[in-house]
Design goal:
Blueprint (H helix, E strand, L loop, with lengths): L2 H21 L4 H25 L4 H27 L5 H29 L1
Length: about 120
């Protein structure tokens, strides 16, 4: 996937997360998880954009590692929402799937960059 398409995909994910958070029932638990989910979910695209402006391959790898971490964290918060019974699994299934695909592609990119660096 090219850079422009991946940027668009990560931004679309962030928008979907924001919209989903607005649908959550209000409680102390959901408010806390929602804030964390918005932080990590919107950070994926922001950090990917930073990776695209990297000054070197090691710099790009470091920035993509942040994308990896934020994607994994986003999955964690989505899992917590469903496992705690705060939202039905089917309501966040598409967001979870997209986050997982972005995570997988990011890991693959990191491996490719490391192989070319060696």
């Amino acid at each position: 996937m090219d850079e422009k398409a991946f940027k668009a995909r990560t931004k679309k994910l962030a928008v979907a997360i924001i919209k989903q958070v607005d649908k959550l029932p209000r409680s102390l638990a959901t408010d806390v998880i929602a804030k964390q989910l918005i932080r990590s979910g919107t950070s994926i695209g922001a950090n990917y954009r930073a990776a695209c402006r990297a000054k070197s391959t090691p710099d790009m790898i470091n920035k993509l590692k942040i994308v990896e971490e934020e994607s994994d964290e986003t999955e964690y918060w989505l899992e917590l929402l469903t496992e705690a019974g705060l939202t039905p699994r089917d309501q966040v299934a598409d967001i979870y799937k997209e986050t997982d695909e972005i995570l997988s592609m990011t890991i693959a990119s990191i491996k490719t960059l490391r192989a070319h660096k060696s």
